[in-house]
Write a structure and sequence with these properties.
Strand order of the largest sheet: 13-12-11-10-17-16-15-14
Oligomer: single chain
Shape: elongated
Order of helices and strands: HEEEEEEEEEEEEEEEEE
Structural class: mainly beta
Distance between the termini: 93 Å
Radius of gyration: 29 Å
Largest sheet: 8 strands, antiparallel
Strand content: 35-45%
Number of helices: 1
Helix content: under 10%
Number of domains: 2
Amino acid sequence: MKKYINYIGLVILSMIFFSCNKENFNYPDGYVGISKITVFPTITVTGAAYIYIAKGGTYTEPGVTAKAGSSTVKVVTTGSPDTNTAGVYTITYTATNTDGFAATASRTVVVYSTDATATGNDFSGNYARTTNGSVAVWTKVAPGVYSVFNPGGAPGTNLTVIVFNQTGYSIKIPSQIAGGSPTSSLSESTTPGTTPGTISKYSMEIVNPGYGTAVRNFVKQ
């Protein structure tokens, strides 16, 4: 019986030894077991996310930096604004670490061309869609330029677009990337408000993969 008990003890000690040996945490630097540790890049965009420039003006890049841990990572910039052509331009910044993992960030540059008939307008305010009451929020950000949240009156959306009022009471969504998708508008119309330089109603079709082809009608609240 004593020999049997000694044998059991030897087996248990062997299991403990091999188990401890298996759980050795002295991994090579940069590894956990056989898995390599990677630090993803973090991009810091200097300056505003949206920059507004009158046509013919000058664009100066505010700058961007990227790091992976304490290491500086090279940033590749794609896109640039044509300051001689009104439009909405997206500049994309990409940084890739030594293991091939990338991060991206972006900035929007709006080049506007607004004539004297529109510069004094202010279409800012809340507009309710006639079919469901969902509200589009207009904010004037430059002469003839508006940042519009929920332009299609779609409940639950967080889409924001740039809208131009280049002349008179005309409106349009110039071609741009919004919510990750190409976006623009068709069939735009407005009704001037009782106060000069304002509108009481507007209509437009939102051209975006997430929207249908219906013309959407809004009334100012």
